[in-house]
Amino acid sequence: MKFDEGISGNHVCYGGSEYPFYSDVDITGEIIEGLGPYTLLNALPMRSRNTAEIVIILRSFIFEDFNYSFRVAGELKTNVARYHGGNLAEEIAALTSLALGIRLKAGDANRYFDGSDPHGRFQAMQWRPLPSLSVSLGRPKIPMPTSVNLNEAQPLLSTVPKVKPELYVELVRAARAYQDALWMAEAEPHLAWLLFVSAIEIAANARFASSGSPSENLRELKGGLAQLLLNTGGEDLLEKVAADLKDLFGSTKKFLLFCEEFMPAEPPIRPSADWGRIEWKWVSLKKILSKVYALRSKALHAGIPFPLPMCREPDQYGDDGPAERAITSMAVHTMNGSWVPEDAPISLHTFHYFVRGALLNWWGHISE
Question: 3-state DSSP: the chain helix, strand, coil percent, rounded to 5?
Answer without folding.
Answer: 45, 15, 45
